[in-house]
């Protein structure tokens, strides 16, 4: 009579476990690539937003009167956060698509 351990040690079960480990490794790598790409995009977006925001507060009377430091920080951080999430999501999806088509 076969016990439960025989099924766990079968070649099919080991291949399935190996396949799952490989898929998990690909998913982790995909998410890491997304985080790195998102962080880079957030830094670029923050700098690209900070320069015109701070310049406009110094040069335009309307901006000087209406954009206090909190509003300036909110503008910059909102753009940086949006850039992070958009680029990270697109990177993860592109990597997952590439990995799914690369599988036999």
From TrEMBL:
It holds the Pfam family ENOD93. Residues 1-27 are annotated as: Disordered. Keywords: Membrane, Transmembrane, Transmembrane helix. The chain crosses the membrane at residues 34-57, 69-88. InterPro entries: Enod93 (IPR005050). It comes from the Eukaryota. The keyword Transmembrane helix applies. This is Early nodulin-93-like. It comes from Lupinus luteus.
